[in-house]
Amino acid sequence: MSIFPSSDARRQRRTAKNRDRSQANRPQHRQRLKQPRTVEKPVSNQQQKSNRLPLLRLLLVWSVLMGTCVAMGIKLYRLQVIHAPKLFAQARKQQLTSIPGFVIRRPVVDCNQNVLAMDRLVYHLYARPGQFNLSKEKIAARLAPLLQSSPTQLVKRFNQPSNSIRLTSVVPEEMFPQIDSLTIDGKKVRGLELVPQFSRFYPQHTLLADIVGYVNTDREGKAGVEASHNQQLESLVKPIPSLSRDGNNEIMSYSVPDNFAEVDDTRLELTVDLRLQRAAQAALSKQLKAVQAKRGSVIVMDARDGSILAMVDEPSYDPNEFYKYDFELFRNWAISDLYEPGSTFKPLNVAIALELKAIHPNEIFPDPDTIKIGGRIIKNADPEPYKELSVAGILQHSSNVGMVQIAQRISPATYYDWLKKLGLGQSLATDLAAVAPSQIKSKKQFVTYPIEPATASFGQGFALTPIKLVQLHAALANGGKLVTPHVVRGRFDSNGHPQWQPTLPTPQQVFSPSVAKTVLEMMETVVTQGSGKSVRIPGYRIAGKTGTAQKASARGGYDSTAKITSFVSILPVDAPRYVILAVIDEPTKVPKGQLIRGSTTAVPVVKSVIDALISTERIPPNQPTQRIQNSEFGIRN
Amino acid sequence: MAKAPKTRVSNRQRQKPVPANAKSVRSLSSSRSAPVWLTNLRHLQNRCAAVTALLVTALLVAYGWSAYSQSSWQEAHSQLEDLKKQERQLMQKNEVLKNDLATQAQQPETGLVYPSPAEAIALEPASQTTRAPKPVSPATQPPRLTSLPLGY
Q1: A115 vs B129: CB contact, 8 Å cut-off?
Q2: What is the torsional sign of CA A402, A404, A405, A409?
Q3: Active-site residue numbers of A?
Q4: Considering the entire predicted model, what is its pTM?
Q5: Measured between CB atoms, which of B20, B73, B122 is closest to A621?
Q6: Are the beta carbons of B24 and A19 separated by less than 8 Å?
Q7: Could you tell me which residue ranges the Penicillin-binding protein dimerisation domain spans (chain A) (predicted)?
Q8: Cβ neighbour number for residue A129 with a 10 Å cutoff
Q9: Do residues A33 and A88 lie in contact, with contact meaning Cβ atoms separated by under 8 Å?
Q10: pLDDT tens for residues A578-614?
Q11: Quick one: A221 exposed, middle or buried, by C-beta within 10 A (0-12, 13-18, 19+)?
């Protein structure tokens, strides 16, 4: 309906006015002559009033609308101009959130992608007894089974005079909902707080502690790969300073940075084989119990490139609970403790002599039981009246007297330089943390006193780490090159693309391939005819050398009872690849009728490891002992 | 013959007869054209209405799309977080389970032994003899199709 009066009404009003005017001016007699016609009713006052109403209504509505607009404008001005900064800050405070930057540690995996170390989300559980809305006993009774604790113990802890008591720091992620929404008698428990934190988890517990290491409470790598490759393991999740959230506390998509959903899927891959590590650890711990030894170590290395397939130290520690163990155990004995290698060093001395052409491989040496050097008498470990020994025989019977005679063929200065060339007295280049440098006496002392080169000839008078000895034997296996022992293969993404790989120094050639081959074949006779007989496996050509060395005493000189026994093995001789070393520190018990020697203590460990190695690496026998006739399977060639 | 008496006729009466309501009714042309400015204004109003309708539609579509994309992003984000959590837990449980199995297998009562080379079977690789392709015999030809199915 229009609010304006209609044109009809206007017309009516106009005609009415005109009619009134003409009737007023017209004389009376004329009116009588006029023909009768229909005359419209005159407009009443009421009608005139009603015609004025729409205008009033219009004004009223307009003023209401305009008033409202003005009021809203004033309100808008107050909100958008006067109180704007305060309201803006208040709104930002409510809507914005920030994600602080934090560091996650990448997983560590073995060569078969078994996870050896990973980050898991755990919750620190704090109790604030002052905020409890239920009795301490009731809460303790409900919490105790979840925390694997007793209610009385929990109540005791609740009664401690503290506002905030940390009940546990390892509430697993899957238990979070149970504790977070803990209700008793229909009431939600107040006064419990769960604080999330990433924690390092080692699924194999003690098995790889000496390689992987541990992370302390400040999430810093403190031993093993965790320490040596801290930079490769740490992945910084950048902080996001301003993220908008909606009413449901959900993140608004427009406020997130471009790389918000990016996931770091890289893993640090080791050269270690978990299966071999497990077999080596089982063999070593079993043998340590049997011989009642102080400690032991096993290293398996690929001689071609220096990659370590297994490295076990016993006793070890659980990196998940490192704080429960003696600090001494955190040291990887195989890389950080020095020992005098004894007879396992003899093949290397033979290689030096062959390299210098001081001896001939087929040369025969007299082997009396004793030999006098610089006023001191050197004896063979096992007095046997051998008349003569070949160079291979010296190794087979581990003759000290024979080795002294070989050393006498070399000038002490040249011999010393060769020992230095092999890296004695220097630190070993490796990616392992805290590798101790080997020790050797000064050149002056070595050259001056004839006893020094004589004792060095059978592996005493200098000290090295088990890993160094493995590196030296690997040189005999790979054709004379000093490779770099390493445990890290690189950092790879989930598709196997390398993101980072270590750059290893070029292997240094120390022995000629022919000398290395000759010595290796001599070492094979140690297994076939000598002290390493018990390691033989039908169908496989295995080389080895036993070692039994006296331990240096803290008071100077050598301890008459404490021995360190070892056995080093290389296989297969026809295509040398693997070097296995087992070292046993202070074995005290051997079966009746046997002596504490490398052959009786360390060889069984190496035998078990070789068995596992053949299975895991699928090493084919050189001379197959069990040939399957194809006809048995009905195969016709 | 008598003449009709003459009636006096006024000059006004002699004039052309005029309709009675000639002065009271003014004819209005029904087809009086509106002014140009009004026509233009009307056109402008029509166009503005159409543009407004389009803008309102576009606004609704844009608002709907932004609300939908936001909710679907949030859904995807929570799914991603959930997957991350699942991956963590799966990785952890898988390794724990593997380790438990390996530890149990080492117990003597399980009767399990480590694989040994003595029990391994070594097969020599088959000789690389090139075989002549077999001649196609009638037996290798595809079977003839029968119209009746076979029941077993």
Answers
A1: no
A2: positive
A3: 343
A4: 0.78
A5: B122
A6: yes
A7: 107-220
A8: 18
A9: no
A10: 999 999 999 988 877 778 888 889 999 999 999 999 9
A11: buried
